[in-house]
Write a structure and sequence with these properties.
Helix content of chain A is 33%, strand content 17%. Chain A is α/β, with parallel strands linked by helices and 402 residues long. The first copy, chain A, has a nine-stranded mixed β-sheet, with helices on both faces. Chain A has a two-stranded antiparallel ribbon with strand order 3-4. A two-stranded parallel sheet of chain A has the order 7-8. In chain A, helix 3 packs antiparallel against helix 4, helix 3 packs antiparallel against helix 7 and helix 4 packs across helix 6. The interface between A and B is large, with 52 and 52 residues.
């Protein structure tokens, strides 16, 4: 399943600044991609970006895995791919720009960084909005349900096509952290190090509940039409609702206090109506409205479902986490954030403890943050410091270029 | 504003078992009700129920205040009012039946209990579904926004019309607890004791966020029609979503684990589709579906808005909680639940600490519960024991009838 035909870098790849972006066909009719759900996809294209320069012995490659709403554009202010089709990217740097770049936590002067959009996503990789070659129409919900493991196997195809049989590290936060964990479990020899931030071996039942309501919101939107809304009015209201809701789980009680408190947005006194009134209402409303311009509702369904399904212990240890983690060879770093209640510090610590009990190399860092789950995106100074130290550790053969 | 004409008990009141139910007109054109939002309501009718027997010196009356989705029917299996119009009440006891009744925590052999539906509600008290006498049509969103203080002033009119100038205690949980607190602040001499369970002097910014998304869901439903949906298709999907979401906040991470874990409802293996799959999905879906049969979406908007607005310190202390609480004369009992994250134990404890600092009589109980905010409804044994002891305390003049 993972043996793939090698392709040349597509002509369509292009470079802007320190970023290079491209699309790679990783599955075709001769070499289709089999999903966990048992469907053969006859064509899978992957959008990816690279940063920095690959060294001569190809030993400095780091794969970054993005979270729910992320894309391949990790760093830099230059939108590299289809800028014209993604106007929301204007004046927005990559989603981890404070952490990834020249001289930053993941130093692109030192490492060659790759990030690709997930299967089922809406940022250039094949997904529900893609045209099904068998029908000539967008897949919609006929696209197979995908899993974190599917994502990792697609990423492996991409890396192999780019000429890698081994990489230095895989790094991801949140749902990206689950991909990093899955990488370390599925292909233990493929990387030296793995960094898992604000993540866990599985989503909690409360997390399942939030995703349930989010999907319910999208699928209840009258414009959803069983996922066949392409070219028609989109289920924007449902998607906005799902995003507003999810945003609550990305913040913490503390960050709600710090950012908004109970303050009104416009006036000092109650308006006594049902318009937007509190700052927090205004914030959430903006989050919802802006999201629908940049995300596909079907992809939201697929990605949250993958998030729900992921269970490392079930997949690799018949339900036993220790048995699953015993597969790991990579040096692991778990980074958690004190007020994260979506993927709690306790969940990260549990993985670290089990690995330690197994005698595996593992580091655990708890970032003392008030920013909740979003800490992995916002606590860039702490995250950069920790990443930099961990990635350089036992890496002292190379001359320090700083 | 609070002087009211006395009415006779309406002919429509009737008795079933130990419960008596009635409707009382507490405002009419001669004596309208002025809301905090500055609107004069020309007609306010209140649905209420009573339990037990009033003693000769009228000193054993306890007012219970209900929470968001509650009604006047606190206890007993007998639906007293318009049974025919509320079929969902069949086979459901009152919402606090394990706590209120003969020999129970609030012992109706000892106390005369009253509970009434809040202004703006949908269980018999005037609200957005009521006919506006000026137009002959349902109010919808032309009903004034109401506040917790409005509710308390309506309840005071009811109590005065029933002949009370003083009661023994006021008791409430959650939003009902905020009514109990408001009672103790607005009319400090009106009661001996006040019990506030799973509540706080104000809702947290995170709580505001959840209410925001819930209301957004209702108002985004295409059947909402600016609240003018009476007699037409209702915004059921939006209301169901709001309820599903709110239900997450009523449970705790622990109770999600205890009740559902990550188990599937029907199968052992993933179905790889977007149907209901996890037990928690099934539970939330049921909560949403069943709620729309028994609740009015407009009332949901009004009640959550009142919940948002309530701020005891702002109302009674120019933002200073200590100044506000210095008004209180009643002996206060704060009951909080360890895993409640909607109204946290810390918030209850803060009230208790301030009262203690002021030299006021106050008791604080932390129930060691895994059931989250719903603990005030579910931890009936602990709640009953605590209520029984607190209500009997310094009540030893009366002969013990047990």
């Amino acid at each position: 399943m993972d043996s793939v035909t090698r392709y040349d870098l597509p002509d369509s790849s292009r470079s802007v600044g320190f970023t290079k972006a491209g699309r790679m066909t990783v599955a075709d009719r001769d070499n289709p991609f089999l999903t966990d759900s048992g469907v053969l996809l006859p064509h899978v294209e992957v959008e990816y970006e690279t940063y920095g320069t690959l060294n001569n012995d190809k030993s400095n490659c780091i794969l970054i895995c993005h979270a729910l709403s992320g894309d391949a554009h990790v760093a830099g202010w230059d939108a590299c791919w289809e800028k014209e089709n993604r106007p929301w990217r204007e004046n927005r740097p990559g989603w981890w720009d404070n952490v990834v770049g020249p001289g930053k936590g993941i130093d692109t002067n030192r490492y060659f960084v790759i990030c690709s959009n997930v299967l089922g996503g809406c940022y250039g990789t094949t997904g529900p909005a893609s045209v099904n070659p068998d029908t000539g129409r967008p897949y919609g919900l006929s696209f197979p349900v995908v899993t974190v493991s599917d994502w990792v196997r697609v990423q492996k195809r991409l890396l192999e096509l780019l000429g890698f049989s081994h990489i230095y590290a895989v790094v991801g936060g949140s749902l990206g952290g689950q991909q990093a964990l899955e990488w370390a479990l599925a292909y233990p020899q493929f990387m030296e190090k793995a960094v898992i931030l604000a993540s866990a071996d599985k989503l909690s039942p409360q997390g399942l509940a939030f995703n349930t309501v989010g999907r319910h919101s999208i699928m209840s939107d009258p414009h959803f039409c069983d996922g066949n809304y392409y070219g028609k009015e989109k289920p924007d209201k449902g998607l906005a609702m799902a995003r507003m809701l999810a945003n609550i789980t990305y913040l913490s009680e503390e960050s709600f206090h710090d950012k908004f408190g109970r303050e009104f947005q416009y006036t000092e006194n109650p308006a006594y109506n049902f318009q937007i009134e509190y700052k927090v209402e205004s914030y959430l409303n903006h989050q919802g409205l802006s999201f629908v311009h940049r995300f596909d509702a079907n992809s939201y369904l697929y990605i949250t479902k993958a998030m729900d399904y992921y269970d490392a212990a079930a997949r690799w240890g018949s339900g036993n986490l220790e048995e699953a983690l015993s597969r790991i060879s990579a040096d692991l770093l778990m980074v958690s954030f004190k007020t994260d209640w979506l993927y709690t510090p306790e969940q990260s610590l549990e993985i670290a403890k089990v690995l330690a009990r197994l005698g595996k190399p593992v580091n655990y860092v708890l970032v003392d943050s008030r920013k909740g789950h979003d800490g992995f995106l916002l606590e860039t100074e702490a995250v950069s410091r920790v990443l930099d130290a961990f990635l350089k550790k036992e890496d002292s053969d190379e001359p320090d270029e700083e």
